[in-house]
Amino acid sequence: MLDLLEGSEPDTREVEFDNNPDFPMDGKHRLALNFLRGPQKHSCLVGGSRSGKTSLIVRCIIERALRAPGSRHLICRYRANAVNASVWADTYRKVMRLAFPGIKSKRKQLGYEEFSNGAEIWFGGLDEAERVEKILGMEFATIYAGECSQIPYSSILVLRTRLAQPGTKLKLRGFYDLNPTTKLHWTNVEFGEKRDPIGKLKLANPEDFDRFFLNPKDNERNLDPSYIKSLENMPKAYRERFYEGKYVDSIENALWTPDLIEVCREDPIEPDNGRRLAEFQRVAVAVDPSGALSKADIKSDDIGICVAGKRTMSKTVILEDNTIKGGPKDWGRAAVAAYKRWGADLIVAEANYGGAMVKSTIQAVDPNVPVKLVNASRGKHVRAEPVAALYEEGKVTHAGMFPELEDELCQFATDGYKGDRSPNRADAAIWAITELMLGEQSTYTLEFVR
Fold first, then answer.
1. Domain coordinates of the chain in residue numbers?
2. Nearest to residue 325, comparing CAs of 360, 350, 371, 289?
């Protein structure tokens, strides 16, 4: 393998590197690696969370770089911080250490790794205009677009214009991966249905597009059993996506879709010891009480508790879903704890189950917490529509994953809520965003309680 670094003449063969004992691969992973070396130009790995998709593609790209002196390869995601933190600083280093022991690369200031044979692997995000402009000024033998659920097809088309580096004797390849979203997503249309995602016509070159499914059960040896269990216990739609690796149906005229939420996702944010984080102008905790009397009251709905923070530039982030099952004392303590944990400015509480009860419940825990009581004057889906529009405009993001909350959001349609039970998590999130973003446009009446 080392002779590949010393100016050996590259060719078009995709040789198989030794299966290093420190980087063992089960049968499904070996099949996936061989798939990536197949005859198709564009290869998409589809599957559940932490199934090994990124590691396999990064490994394949490193192989290609080592085989072709002077070749250039691009690894990108929608956001630069995600590709730098998750791929360059983590996956890339692990794969180099385990699969290619003894081989080194040097990090260059411009944001790429260089091997001794002159090959380069670049890392970039599509959310930095200056960075994207520099990337688009170069040509690559390989382009890898990771987490394609967050990348619009228009960006993919632009990236493919850069898949054109001449003189490397490598087959030009595009790699893609994602946790599957809805069946309408461009990856399913292009790689599954073999149709153009824009015009919906059959692809002129269907043989250039192929996909391979890979799921967490295929990567069990590298995962904690508790993680697999957590995926098994997700809501149905999220279990299908992140555990079973299936594309899911979306409801007709949905206000939110998994595709929309994925585009609006960012890295998790941790609270700062009860102080409001400097990046936020305001932080609100919203509570959507139910009629539950205690934790044992299984007939009643959960009590939605959601924390959101407003940044500058009119953008709001969902920070925490702290929804619980419990009686008034339980949710009162949980809401006040969230208020203090995030250094919030106020608690917004829906008063439909009795304004006096809501007021006394929160004040009994801490009489100094400012509370705004809100009464819905219009239906749930009507209140949801302006908030969904903010997501469409990129003005609301989710700091991490909130499967139960997101599942409820995706059950809202223009003609009503389609879920089986009351969307208490989503209602709380909608109240929080309405408070921080919509102001006088909000569709509620309020009473301010001190």
1. 2-242, 258-449
2. 289
Q: Compute the distance between CA of residue 431 and CA of residue 13 in angstroms, rounded to an integer.
A: 58
Give the HSE-up count for residue 85: Cα atoms under 13 Å, Cβ half-sphere. 8
Q: What does pTM read for this prediction? A: 0.75
Q: Are strands 112-115 and 105-108 parallel, antiparallel or unpaired?
A: antiparallel
pLDDT digits (tens, 9 = 90+) for 287-306: 998 755 545 444 457 899 99
Q: What DSSP designation does 283 have?
A: E
Strand-by-strand arrangement of the 72-77 sheet? 105-108, 112-115, 120-125, 72-77, 142-145, 173-178, 42-46, 209-213
Q: Does domain 2-242 have CATH number 3.30.160.250?
A: no
For residue 44, the one-letter residue type is C
Q: What gap in Å lies between CA 138 and CA 387, rounded to an integer?
A: 40
Q: Locate 398 and state its tokens.
A: 């989710």
67: how many CB neighbours lie within 10 A of its CB? 24
Summarize pLDDT for 132-178 with one digit per residue, the tens: 777 778 999 999 999 999 898 988 999 999 999 988 889 999 999 99
